[in-house]
Fold:
Amino acid sequence: MPQWLRVRLNRWRRWLWHRLFFRMLFGEQALDGRPLPFARLSPSTCIEHEDRLAMGNHVFIGHFNFIEASHGVRIDDGVQITNFVSVLTHSSHRSLRLMGEGYYDVPVDGRPGFISGPVHIGAYSFIGPHSVIEANTTLGRGCLVLSHSRVRGQFPDFAVIGGAPAVVVGDTRDGDAALLARHPEWRAHYEAWAGREGPAA
Structure:
């Protein structure tokens, strides 16, 4: 095959693959049947137990994410989950090591070391790439999870969260205050979801 033809063929294949598999898809449906016209999900994201994933509108879930929702995942309005993020509602590796082949003969509630629980990501939070959100985690509204973080536990509204294990390292309202000082016309929109807990005027 001539080089020029191989180049054209490869470019065409990449274009087609991108259009079919890596194009963000608008529109989802909530568990209660409501349409979510502005929710955007990449078809490369793997969702297990989709019937236990409660999602708000204006949610963005990017490429190559894994959401395991067997024990319940709630993602509120405006959340952005970037790329290569895992959201997990159980962890079985301790039980498997301890029990070996016997693991499969025992119900979940009888498996020592088995961790399970829901995940809740509050409205307008941002999850940076290569992060893991573990079982029994609640993120408040307006949180920012830094890339490569391992997040487990309860975190307040507007927390900047980073590390492995993750801890609170800042407050998103600090950066928001600087932006709102330059763009005061957006304060009413900001306060519509953040309330008066947002940055001071």
User: Anything to note?
Assistant: The chain has one domain: 3-197. The longest helix spans residues 3-21.
